[in-house]
Amino acid sequence: MAEAHQAVGFRPPLTSDAGEVELSAPMLQEIYLSGLRSWKRHLSRFWNDFLTGVFPASPLSWLFLFSAIQLAWFLQLDPSLGLMEKIKELLPDWGGQHHRLRGVLAAALFASCLWGALIFTLHVALRLLLSYHGWLLQPHGAMSSRTKTWLALVRIFSGRHPMLFSYQRSLPRQPVPSVQDTVRKYLESVRPVLSDEDFDWTAALAREFLRLQASLLQWYLQLKSWWASNYVSDWWEEFVYLRSRNSLMVNSNYYMMDFLYVTPTPVQAARAGNAVHALLLYRHRLNRQEILPTLLMGMRPLCSAQYEKIFNTTRIPGVHKDHIRHLRDSRHVAVFHRGRFFRVGTHSQSGLLSPRALEQQFQRILDDPSPACPHEEHLAALTAAPRDMWAQVRRSLKTQAQEALEAVEGAAFFVSLDSEPAGLTREDPAASLDAYAHALLAGRGHDRWFDKSFSLIVFSNGKLGLSVEHSWADCPISGHMWEFTLATECFQLGYSADGHCKGHPDPSLPQPQRLHWDLPDKIHLSISLALRGAKTLSGNIDCHVFPFSHFGKSFIKRCHLSSDSFIQMALQLAYFRDRGQFCLTYESTMTRLFLEGRTETVRSCTREACNFVRAMEDKEKTDPQCLALFRLAVDKHQALLKAAMSGQGVDRHLFALYIVSQFLHLQSPFLDQVHSEQWQLATSQIPVQQIHLFDVHSYPDYVSSGGGFGPADDHGYGVSYIFMGDDVITFHISSKKSSTRTDSHRLGQHIEDALLDVAALFQEGQRLKCRGLAEKGSEHSRDSLPCHTRGSRAPTTATNF
């Protein structure tokens, strides 16, 4: 999602000027430190690793094995073939009375060695099986005998009832692709957007890179891939996120929305109480590893490492580089309301506070009439400031207001009780949704603590939302938590008839603790500057959200096509109609098939996609011709998506090669050009991962409406989409108001028209387009366009829903 903006923004410098970071550490030392960081993480969670590390066995299986050996020994059988006798000889001689004890110890040691060898064999076998990615390349709906055999073996070697981290030791490491293949794929991806002259120049740079530098840089990457857990992920976190000096607001954070059509209660404190309780229930399950690992096809596990830092995590600003601070536990949340900060405990002596008790605490904050202290109201704007500025101010703040700062940074998460309502309204649905998205992404610039892993935002009418910092994990992780939260607080915890949380208040609870900030005079100017910058950045973002309800995933499935590829090709058509040209397109996909994998880029603007778009804009082309080109474009996109997921993408490999070149102080014009590219269309699909939590047939309105992020380029768009049930797709579009080339509402109209035009290529879709055009004509009080219209420019006005 938001990593597209960060990916084009990082620039590790080669010099050691005063304001820059020098990457002068020897390359071998950096590889050694990468591996050391991996091993430290493993050691810090040794006990959990032990419990999950023996999976698919269990500690009880050792007891069973030991008992079986003892029984065999009692029956005068030696399953060890003499090894236990040799072990007994190596044990100290404690005298005849301890002879039986030596036998038991020998049997225990033999059982432990045999048990460990069996577990190791299972892990190696499962890792080898999980290294096979041929199943990804299978045609949709078809499965070869080889893949069926692979699935059967995975079932045999994968134990039952896995915990969250059970598969971590068995996941393969992300492979380093061939540098020749990566360069070839890169040149293929940029061909549609470059002129002949520019492409020839780029190809010459690529040939020079392959001849002079590629083999050396690739050797270092191979070395790192053998030593560290992942050859790219730690550098991705550091250089793309933590070394970025830009504001986190809009540039790095992203948002997630509540139910689109339903607000379970209008009572703000009650909604906050249930939501906070549900989030802490999720944390409890996370700590106990009771969350099931994500399995593709119900069998292929994904890496779960990113779940570790959901809670109790803060991004701490530093000069030149931030760092992520994660606490093992936190028993309070930090709350912001009307410019004031509070510390609210989440536990009592008997355990987690009930939703009703939490509601009581939040209501006390809402009822507190005390005003904010001077400059306290705008203090959080510092977290939206450039990182170097915030790091310098934070040093003074830590000295003068250490207790208050620690209460915020050490909280489980941040809660903002907004004084304004939000969400879809009947009076102006389009504008209300846009304002809702803007409030979640940027707010007013001073009412979110953007450093926290996530902030829960509760509006005055009971609407919810999340603002998520991106460095610690990617969207599917926070999305998984958010799905659980919405389902739990609404369907399991529920509300009483008067809209309050169920249960009874606890009058013995102490009042929420008001945090007091002793703000030195010298940071008052910094707060004012940060607020001015945050308001400018917030005011420049143009958000547009619209649910596309003419068709959804069910129609696309009936067309026997990938729903994601269908949308991506429609986006190419929409962007071309919006700008009259093609551009590099960033689509984020996961690489969690590998240990500590994060994301890869799918370059969706392909030659096949461009051929399809040109055909759609050529009125001489027939629908069958356009449909044939559309299927070719979809097939190409699917091939790129599967290659990226299986570790054979382009961008992460080129990124890692670039970082190595910086460490080695090797200048590469080719890599410099690659990382100067601008992504004018950044896209992402919000996955729905826990369908079982929502009954979309009985409660069709109780589905998440997804989320969005800022544009990756000043003259570009950020587009995310989510399939809401079977018949609705919600789009979130962002752009900069300062750009004269972009307009989020205009692109939204083009997306709607492009989807209807693509659907009309199919016989069933022609009826959908006729109905869509008729509805549009009715809404805008104009004559409906003829149903066969294709290739004309779409109107630029926004559709009201």
From TrEMBL:
<dbReference type="InterPro" id="IPR000542">
    <property type="entry name" value="Carn_acyl_trans"/>
</dbReference>
<feature type="transmembrane region" description="Helical">
    <location>
        <begin position="104"/>
        <end position="130"/>
    </location>
</feature>
<dbReference type="Pfam" id="PF16484">
    <property type="entry name" value="CPT_N"/>
</dbReference>
<dbReference type="InterPro" id="IPR042231">
    <property type="entry name" value="Cho/carn_acyl_trans_2"/>
</dbReference>
<feature type="active site" description="Proton acceptor">
    <location>
        <position position="470"/>
    </location>
</feature>
<dbReference type="InterPro" id="IPR023213">
    <property type="entry name" value="CAT-like_dom_sf"/>
</dbReference>
<dbReference type="GO" id="GO:0099072">
    <property type="term" value="P:regulation of postsynaptic membrane neurotransmitter receptor levels"/>
</dbReference>
<dbReference type="InterPro" id="IPR039551">
    <property type="entry name" value="Cho/carn_acyl_trans"/>
</dbReference>
<dbReference type="GO" id="GO:0008474">
    <property type="term" value="F:palmitoyl-(protein) hydrolase activity"/>
</dbReference>
<dbReference type="GO" id="GO:0005739">
    <property type="term" value="C:mitochondrion"/>
</dbReference>
<feature type="transmembrane region" description="Helical">
    <location>
        <begin position="50"/>
        <end position="75"/>
    </location>
</feature>
<keyword id="KW-0256">Endoplasmic reticulum</keyword>
<keyword id="KW-0966">Cell projection</keyword>
<keyword id="KW-0472">Membrane</keyword>
<dbReference type="InterPro" id="IPR032476">
    <property type="entry name" value="CPT_N"/>
</dbReference>
<dbReference type="Pfam" id="PF00755">
    <property type="entry name" value="Carn_acyltransf"/>
</dbReference>
<protein>
    <recommendedName>
        <fullName>Palmitoyl thioesterase CPT1C</fullName>
        <ecNumber>3.1.2.22</ecNumber>
    </recommendedName>
</protein>
<keyword id="KW-1133">Transmembrane helix</keyword>
<comment type="function">
    <text>Palmitoyl thioesterase specifically expressed in the endoplasmic reticulum of neurons. Modulates the trafficking of the glutamate receptor, AMPAR, to plasma membrane through depalmitoylation of GRIA1. Also regulates AMPR trafficking through the regulation of SACM1L phosphatidylinositol-3-phosphatase activity by interaction in a malonyl-CoA dependent manner. Binds malonyl-CoA and couples malonyl-CoA to ceramide levels, necessary for proper spine maturation and contributing to systemic energy homeostasis and appetite control.</text>
</comment>
<dbReference type="GO" id="GO:0009437">
    <property type="term" value="P:carnitine metabolic process"/>
</dbReference>
<feature type="domain" description="Choline/carnitine acyltransferase">
    <location>
        <begin position="175"/>
        <end position="752"/>
    </location>
</feature>
<dbReference type="GO" id="GO:0030425">
    <property type="term" value="C:dendrite"/>
</dbReference>
<feature type="domain" description="Carnitine O-palmitoyltransferase N-terminal">
    <location>
        <begin position="1"/>
        <end position="47"/>
    </location>
</feature>
<dbReference type="GO" id="GO:0030424">
    <property type="term" value="C:axon"/>
</dbReference>
<feature type="compositionally biased region" description="Basic and acidic residues">
    <location>
        <begin position="773"/>
        <end position="785"/>
    </location>
</feature>
<keyword id="KW-0012">Acyltransferase</keyword>
<keyword id="KW-0276">Fatty acid metabolism</keyword>
<feature type="region of interest" description="Disordered">
    <location>
        <begin position="773"/>
        <end position="801"/>
    </location>
</feature>
<keyword id="KW-0812">Transmembrane</keyword>
<dbReference type="GO" id="GO:0006635">
    <property type="term" value="P:fatty acid beta-oxidation"/>
</dbReference>
<dbReference type="GO" id="GO:0005789">
    <property type="term" value="C:endoplasmic reticulum membrane"/>
</dbReference>
<dbReference type="GO" id="GO:0098794">
    <property type="term" value="C:postsynapse"/>
</dbReference>
<keyword id="KW-0443">Lipid metabolism</keyword>
<dbReference type="GO" id="GO:0098978">
    <property type="term" value="C:glutamatergic synapse"/>
</dbReference>
<keyword id="KW-0378">Hydrolase</keyword>
<dbReference type="GO" id="GO:0032281">
    <property type="term" value="C:AMPA glutamate receptor complex"/>
</dbReference>
<keyword id="KW-0808">Transferase</keyword>
<comment type="similarity">
    <text>Belongs to the carnitine/choline acetyltransferase family.</text>
</comment>
<dbReference type="GO" id="GO:0004095">
    <property type="term" value="F:carnitine O-palmitoyltransferase activity"/>
</dbReference>
